[in-house]
Amino acid sequence: MRHGAPPRNAGSLRLLAVALCLSVTALADPRRPSTSLRAGRRAVGGALAPSASQGFPNHGSLVHGRRLEEGPTVRYLPGRTLHWGTEELVGLLERAARTLHQRYRVRLTVGDLSARNGGPVARHRSHQSGRDADLAFFARDRRGQPVTPQDYAVFTATGRTADGRLEFDTARNWAMVEALLSDRQVRPERIFVSGALRGRLLAYGRAHASRGSLVTLASSVLAQPARVSPHDNHFHVRIPCPSGDAACRWGVQLPRRLLHPRRLLRPAHRHPRRR
Ligand SMILES: [Zn+2]
Fold it and tell me: What topology is assigned to 59-248 in CATH?
C-alpha cells in the first residue's frame, strides 16, 4: 500500500480502515483462495501481492504465484497442467520465449512448473516451490524440418532419438540456453540436462557463441543432477531463491535417513561417486 496525503474526511478514513483491514486479513492467510485482478494474485492495497517461494524445491510451497499463459510465444506440452511459478520464473520464461520467437518464429514448449499453491505433485520430486520449469527440446524430423513436440522425446548421445526419427536441434536448443542465461533480471541456478547433450550444447556454443563468457557460464549452469535418471528428454530450469523470499531455502531437502548423524560418520568411499 502506498502512503500518501492524509485523508480529508471521515468517509475517507472509513475507507482507509476497511482497506487496511482487508490487507491485514489477506496477509494473515496467504493461501486463501484468490480474488485477484489477475488469476492467482490478490490485490493488496491496490497492488498485486508479490509471489513468494517457500521452503525447498522438493519440500515447499508457492504463495501468490503467477500462471504462465499460452500465447504467440509459449505453448503447453499436451497433458501437462502445472503452469504456476514465482513472478521471477514466469517472467524469465516469458522473456526467453519472446527472444526465441523473434529469432526463429517458434513457440517455446513448456511442460510442468508448479501447482497453483505449490506442494507435492505427481511425476516430480521437485517443482514444489515455484522455482522449477520443464522445457521441451527443439527437434527436427528426418527431412530437417522443425517439429512441434507432442511429448518429450529422448535423445541419445548420437543426438537422435533411438528410432532415428528425430534429431536434437542443437542450434535452437543452444539459443534457448543463451536466452535463459542472457536474461538481465534472473539468472538460472541450474539447467539440468544429460551429460551427452550438455557436451553437444557446449561444443556448439564454443563454435558459435558471440561471447566466450556465455559458454563459461553455460558450462557451470548446465548439469546432469546426481542420483536421478539422465535429463535426456527435456531441460529442467531452476531459478535461485528470489531476493526477499525469506522462507525460501537453497538446495534440496535431504531424506531424513541421510541426515542421521551416524550415517554422516560412515566413510564416504563405500559409495561410488556419481555425477
Ligand atoms: Zn523437471
Answer: Muramoyl-pentapeptide Carboxypeptidase; domain 2 (3.30.1380)
State the Cα–Cα distance between residues 229 and 225, nearest whole angstrom: 8
pLDDT of 77-92, one tens digit each?
999 999 999 999 999 9
Q: What angle is formed at CA 106 by the lines to CA 104 and CA 108, rounded to 5 degrees?
A: 125
Nearest residue to 219 (alpha-carbon basis) of 184, 183, 235, 195: 195
Domain boundaries, the chain: 17-49, 59-248
How remote is the CA of residue 235 from the centroid of ligand 1, in Å?
A: 7
> At 133, phi and psi to the nearest 5?
-145, 140
Pairwise CA distance, residues 96 & 181, whole Å: 9
Tell me the whole-structure pTM to 2 decimals. Answer: 0.78
- What pLDDT, on a 0 to 100 scale, did the predictor assign at position 66? 97
* Distance (Å) from CA 241 to ligand 1 centroid: 17
Q: How far is the CA of 128 from the centre of ligand 1 (A)?
A: 10
How many angstroms does the Cα of residue 140 sit away from the middle of ligand 1?
22
